[in-house]
Automatic annotation (TrEMBL):
Keywords: Lipoprotein. This is SusD/RagB family nutrient-binding outer membrane lipoprotein. PROSITE patterns: PROKAR_LIPOPROTEIN (PS51257). It comes from the Bacteria. It comes from Dyadobacter psychrotolerans.
Length: 517
């Protein structure tokens, strides 16, 4: 297991990679390019800039996103190599996600340390950085976001809290030799994340007209009020995830977050926007365009839904030409999902629809959370409220730049709000956000139109002979419920790994997480 404290000497990779992202003045570029191997030169502004990019790069990285959650959600499908589509997930995929998540978390924790150290806190709050308490609040929000991602992938995890001194919550110790932190249960992690977000959001609401980190904050350009709305909107997501397990706590946080202010339009969306110049291009662009990889296409499931041939909306979705590109014949054709390897390459990249130019652009803005999701969460909370449902669909269409006339036509064809229809539309809105889509599929069981074991995914006729290809998972019988722990945990943190497995269940992809049991 990697060390759980990364001193500022770790920062060269990320700081060098994000120099262009901050849109800083020339004087700020000088700050970003100071020698990061000298701890006294790593300011909280540059650490935040580094941590934001580390965090978003990681949740959208090729292994965990393109080869993981985007496939599990059946947004994409593989051609040529299709093992991951059928849930043969190499255990090494977990290493990258786990290691990079904790690197980002340690950088965020460093911001908190610098702002609480009496000898350094005055320096930490100098310039555009903002007050100590506001810097700490933003770091806590991003830590909560990162920890939720980790626990939704693995379950019980090493965890660290700012406001709770529980012995299980001290993974990010300022101790270079802390190679074997214990694992906190997912239930405890979830409850503490909710409290962290509440406390951080409340702090920022007190100073909502102030700015923190300035343009070094790529996501919100330092706007405290926007960060507070993000914290409360995340509470809606997390509270919904645990409603069946802890209904009282879920409802309390949901109501409190609504009262204090959540996203109300796309202007509130939490987005990390990449750039067109290396090394700051978006992850999907780097994984496909830069690498000239064409073995991931839009799945036949998503294409057929967008065409109105599958699901409950029977007209073409105006997001189709945005989500997918036409094939060489000028048509939208999805790659059959989860074909056996022998059949996966029978359709070439020119036969099927690759991701659309908008989503595969170098300067794509990766979404942490958006208003459409918030509206759908509110619709669910209010027993499938019609107006919130319409708000969510409208927000998604507007976000993708759909013309107003097409929005009106599509809304007129929508069936009335109910569980299936709201969750189907939420699934479509979460396109590119594979991590959240995968979690919602596990939580709700929707959409029902996703491919299941034994379903025919492609019928191919050659010389009058038709062959039906069925979806047959290589492991398990359905969508993976988690990923394996990183193999290195068994070599350097064996006792705590074994305790986690004993408490949670076998370390495989068929073991349900706490909130999903």
């Amino acid at each position: 297991m990697q060390k759980f404290i990364y001193k500022k000497g770790f920062l060269p990779l990320a700081i060098g990679a994000v120099t262009m992202l901050a849109s800083c003045s020339d004087s700020h570029f000088e700050d970003v390019n100071k020698d990061p191997n000298r701890p006294e030169n790593a300011t909280t502004t540059t650490i935040l800039l580094s941590a934001e990019k580390q965090l978003i790069d990681n949740i959208r990285n090729e292994n965990s996103s393109l080869r993981g959650s985007q496939l599990f959600a059946q947004y994409y499908s593989q051609n040529i190599y299709s093992d991951q589509s059928r849930y043969d997930i190499p255990r090494t995929y977990s290493d990258t996600y786990w290691s990079n998540a904790y690197k980002a978390l340690n950088n965020l924790n460093e911001i908190i340390i610098l702002n609480t150290d009496p000898a350094k806190r005055d320096v930490a709050s100098a310039g555009v950085a903002g007050t100590n308490q506001n810097q700490i609040a933003i770091a806590r929000i991003l830590k909560a976001y990162a920890f939720q991602g980790l626990t939704d992938v693995f379950g019980n995890i090493p965890y660290q809290s700012y406001g709770n001194q529980d012995p299980e919550f001290q993974a990010l110790q300022q101790n270079p030799e802390n190679l074997s932190p214990g694992y906190a249960s997912q239930q405890k992690v979830y409850l503490d994340i909710l409290n962290e977000l509440k406390a951080a959001g409340d702090t920022l609401l007190k100073y909502k007209t102030a700015t923190t980190f300035g343009n070094y904050d790529v996501i919100y350009k330092g706007r405290n009020e926007s960060w507070a709305k993000f914290a409360n909107s995340l509470r809606l997501r997390i509270a919904s995830r645990i409603r069946t397990k802890l209904p009282a706590e879920s409802n309390s946080h949901f109501e409190d977050a609504l009262a204090k202010g959540v996203f109300t339009s796309n202007a509130d969306n939490s987005v990390f926007k990449y750039q067109t110049l290396a090394p700051n291009e978006a992850p999907l662009y780097r994984a496909t365009v830069t690498a000239n990889r064409k073995d991931f296409a839009v799945s036949h499931v998503l294409i057929n839904v967008l065409k109105g041939q599958l699901g409950t909306v029977k007209v073409q979705d105006p997001r189709l030409p945005i989500y997918a590109a036409k094939n060489a014949a000028g048509e939208y054709v999805g790659q059959p999902y989860g074909l056996p390897v022998a059949a996966a390459g029978l359709l070439t990249a020119t036969d099927v629809s690759l991701p659309g130019t908008t989503v595969s652009a170098a300067n794509y803005g990766e979404v942490l959370q958006e208003y459409a999701e918030v509206a759908f969460l509110i619709s669910e909370y209010k027993n499938w409220d019609q107006q919130a449902y319409i708000n969510g669909v409208t927000a998604s269409l507007q976000k993708w730049g759909v013309a107003q006339g097409d929005i009106t036509t599509y809304l007129a064809a929508l069936p009335k709000a109910d569980k299936a229809n709201v969750l189907n539309q939420k699934y479509l809105a979460l396109y590119t956000q594979g991590d959240e889509a995968w979690s919602e599929i596990r939580r709700t069981g929707y959409p029902m139109f996703l491919v299941k074991s034994g379903d025919v995914v492609w019928s191919r006729t050659v010389s009058g002979q038709t062959t039906d290809y069925k979806f047959q998972p290589l492991f398990g019988q359905g969508v993976p419920l988690r990923l394996y722990y990183p193999p290195k945990e068994q070599s350097v943190n064996l006792a705590n790994y074994q305790n986690a497995v004993k408490a949670q269940g076998n370390d495989d992809i068929t073991t349900s997480l706490w909130w999903n049991k």
